[in-house]
């Protein structure tokens, strides 16, 4: 406290008689209180109201007080603490007892009030060894040094008492004591309505408090009260210019900002708030005592984990955001809460600064919503990108092979690999048009969780492309998948049956089999039993409206649910698979046709070579035939004559042997000529409509001499039902000649 600021004494109504006596004792005494005491004394009677206390609180704000009650009124005291920072003391009851004793006794009031003052001094910490005169002297010393101006005016005579502080506040060059009432009013204008106002005051009137602004903008708080049972009036003056400026400055700041300011006590009850808070929550103020949780919380009790706990307990400044719903509309407020501490360091109040950040929060929510939408869109784009990447890799990989077994392996690996669709197992059934069956062809997938763990561990060594996964998976699953191979081998279903898979194939619709669709689940009983699992997807493979096969997938190991997105991927993959399988089939047919074409080409080329050779031989044969024909006639004649001579000459004649040599050699030459003529005839085709029986008879006539010589009997059995047909009689005759000669050779 500033050294110039001294103790102030306020007397608020107690009872007319006691108020007068206390006024005389405390204010009019010649004794002084110790200079070490720096708190005003407030004496309040039972008739003071909370409202009046609030009105007078401005002269008390920021000071230390002793509050004295005749009758302890808890509500008044609590309200006084909240509004004015008034602090009670433990000796209140003891002081009140003294006041009550004064009221009940008929003894000398001066003596009793002297006792009261002594008791008051004891409470204030003064020593009781001083005489009353000395005590009054000390009181007067205080009155001359306190920051309040004290003036006692006699209604008729004017100023009868005034301390130096009063003259300083009024800035009077002359002493105030002795100035008449009219001149005093003319000079200082302190009386509302002039000196008439002084005459109108009665002992029953309560103190009148108001503020007065001087031309130099100084503001003085003035309290005017009649002294009971006397003709005197007590005037107290307090220069609150600085305080008023600070208050106006603070009020200006608070009134210009758009933030709410409120003060709460330890019970979270509202002590004070500015206009903004009332504008925000005006309806709540009409419902009785207001607490902070009426604004920010449930409206019933202190919120769990209340952030103000840290303010009251740890004296911390905390910041947080609260949500408030009014008429179905959400409002958001940023709140800064700071402690208000008493002289002993304890927190007895909290001031909150609240800012409406609804627009910001709504914008944040909108941004968060937009962010979530963007994240979802990003996820969808990533999913679509991955799908496109997978399908592109599958398509590229399928383009590099036309072998059916490789195609099936690629597709099933893409279905089951982590880099692909990620199913646990996959089964391929293909249509065999030759057998009219839907046959299981290929399957892939672990047979048990243990096998799955081993395979997936080998496949999890870093990211791979689909091509790398195909190679790795083929190595990892070598000599494995025995169970799925047995399962796929058990599928052999006639295409004309009413089996569940045949229906799917004919309808061309992808189906998800699970217990949610009981009808389909029942129809797929045979497939469920074969797979030994109840949840799976069935995808038909179609190409240009033609049924190719069936793809079955499940998650028997992980039990992951098959989603609609999975079905879309399967349908897309099925299209690639169908085209690849159809392309493989067409490629195989093309390969077979190409092979046949190559064979035909080779045969044609060989025949062309033979034709060229035949043409050459035909030319040679024609020439040889002409030569042979010219030689044959004389040769036949030679042979004939040699034969005749041989028959005429005896066997023992020496000429017989020579003629026999001539006959044999002529026969050899004749046979050679026949061969040449036969080759020539083969070289020249002469196809015509002829009778095969006649050709046979013509051939036999040539051999009649030999048949007769060797005593061979010929039986001819021909069919008269054989009609003429196209053939080369000469070449056929040569065939028969060769057959007969060969037969004669073995006889």
Supply the CATH architecture of the largest domain. Answer: 2-Layer Sandwich
Strand order of the largest sheet: 16-15-14-19-18-17
- Mean pLDDT across every amino acid position: 74
Gross morphology:
rod-shaped
Output the CATH topology of the largest domain: Beta-Lactamase
The number of helical runs is 26
Top-tier CATH class of the largest domain: Alpha Beta
N-to-C CA distance: 164 Å
Name of the CATH superfamily of the largest domain:
GAF domain
As residue ranges, the low-confidence spans are 1-48, 56-117
Would you report the number of β strands? 21
Helix/strand-derived category reads: alpha+beta
CA-based gyration radius: 67 Å
Proportion of residues in β-strands: 15-25%
Biggest beta sheet attributes: 6 strands, antiparallel
User: How many separate structural domains?
Assistant: 4
């Amino acid at each position: 406290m500033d050294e110039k600021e001294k103790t102030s004494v306020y007397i608020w109504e107690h009872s007319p008689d006691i108020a007068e006596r206390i006024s005389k004792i405390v204010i009019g005494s010649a004794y002084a209180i110790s200079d070490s005491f720096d708190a005003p004394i407030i004496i309040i009677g039972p008739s003071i109201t909370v409202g009046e206390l609030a009105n007078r609180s401005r002269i008390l704000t920021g000071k230390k007080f002793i509050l004295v009650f005749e009758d302890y009124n808890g509500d008044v005291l609590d309200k006084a603490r909240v509004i004015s920072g008034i602090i009670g003391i433990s000796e209140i009851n003891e002081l009140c007892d003294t006041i009550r004793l004064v009221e009940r006794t008929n003894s000398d009031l001066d003596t009793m009030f002297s006792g009261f003052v002594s008791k008051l001094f004891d409470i204030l910490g003064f020593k009781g060894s001083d005489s009353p005169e000395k005590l009054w002297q000390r009181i007067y010393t205080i009155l001359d040094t306190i920051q309040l101006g004290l003036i006692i005016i006699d209604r008729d005579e004017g100023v009868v008492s005034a301390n130096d502080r009063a003259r300083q506040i009024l800035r009077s060059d002359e002493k105030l004591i002795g100035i008449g009432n009219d001149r005093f009013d003319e000079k200082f204008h302190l009386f509302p309505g002039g000196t008439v106002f002084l005459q109108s005051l009665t002992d029953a009137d309560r103190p009148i408090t108001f503020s007065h602004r001087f031309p130099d903008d100084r503001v003085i708080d003035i309290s005017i009260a009649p002294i009971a049972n006397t003709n005197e009036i007590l005037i107290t003056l307090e220069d609150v210019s600085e305080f008023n400026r600070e208050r106006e400055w603070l009020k200006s700041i608070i009134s210009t900002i758009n933030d709410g300011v409120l003060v709460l006590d330890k019970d979270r009850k509202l002590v004070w708030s500015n206009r903004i808070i009332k504008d925000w929550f005006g309806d709540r103020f009409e419902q009785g005592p207001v607490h902070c949780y009426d604004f920010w919380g449930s409206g019933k009790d202190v919120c769990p984990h209340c952030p103000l706990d840290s303010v009251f307990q740890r004296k911390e400044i905390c910041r947080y955001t609260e949500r408030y719903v009014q008429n179905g509309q959400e409002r958001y407020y940023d709140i800064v809460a700071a402690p208000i501490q008493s002289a002993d360091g304890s927190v007895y109040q909290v001031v909150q600064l609240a800012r409406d950040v609804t627009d910001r929060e709504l914008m944040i929510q909108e941004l968060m919503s937009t962010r979530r939408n963007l994240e979802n869109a990003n996820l969808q784009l990533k999913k679509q990108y991955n799908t496109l990447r997978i399908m592109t890799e599958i398509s590229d990989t399928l383009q590099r092979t036309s072998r059916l077994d490789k195609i099936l392996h690629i597709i099933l690996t893409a279905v089951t690999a982590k880099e692909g669709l990620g199913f646990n197992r996959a089964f391929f059934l293909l249509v065999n048009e030759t057998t009219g069956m839907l046959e299981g062809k290929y399957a892939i997938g672990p047979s048990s969780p243990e096998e799955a763990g081993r395979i997936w561990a080998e496949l999890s060594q870093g990211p791979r492309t689909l091509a790398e996964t195909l190679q790795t998976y083929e190595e990892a699953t070598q000599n494995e998948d025995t169970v799925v191979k047995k399962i796929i081998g058990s599928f052999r279903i006639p295409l004309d049956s009413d089996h569940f898979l045949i229906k799917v194939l004919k309808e061309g619709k992808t189906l998800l089999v699970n217990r949610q669709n009981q009808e389909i689940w029942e129809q797929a009983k045979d497939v469920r039993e074969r797979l030994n699992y109840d949840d799976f997807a069935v995808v038909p493979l179609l190409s240009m409206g033609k049924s190719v096969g069936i793809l079955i997938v499940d998650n028997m190991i992980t039990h992951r649910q098959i989603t609609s997105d999975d079905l879309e991927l399967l349908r897309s993959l099925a299209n690639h698979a169908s085209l690849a399988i159809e392309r493989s089939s067409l490629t195989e047919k093309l390969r077979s046709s190409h092979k046949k074409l190559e064979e035909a080409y080779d045969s044609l080329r060989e025949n062309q070579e033979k034709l060229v050779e035949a043409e050459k031989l035909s030319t040679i044969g024609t020439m040889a035939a002409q030569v042979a024909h010219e030689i044959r006639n004389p040769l036949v004649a030679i042979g004939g004559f040699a034969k005749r001579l041989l028959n005429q000459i005896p066997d023992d004649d020496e000429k017989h042997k020579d003629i026999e040599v001539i006959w044999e050699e002529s026969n050899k030459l004749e046979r050679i000529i026949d061969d040449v003529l036969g080759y020539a005839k083969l070289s020249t085709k002469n196809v015509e409509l002829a009778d095969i029986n006649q050709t046979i008879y013509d051939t036999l006539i040539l051999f009649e001499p030999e048949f007769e010589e060797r005593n061979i009997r010929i039986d001819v059995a021909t069919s008269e039902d054989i009609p003429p047909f196209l053939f080369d009689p000469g070449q056929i005759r040569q065939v028969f000649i060769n057959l007969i000669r060969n037969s004669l050779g073995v006889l």
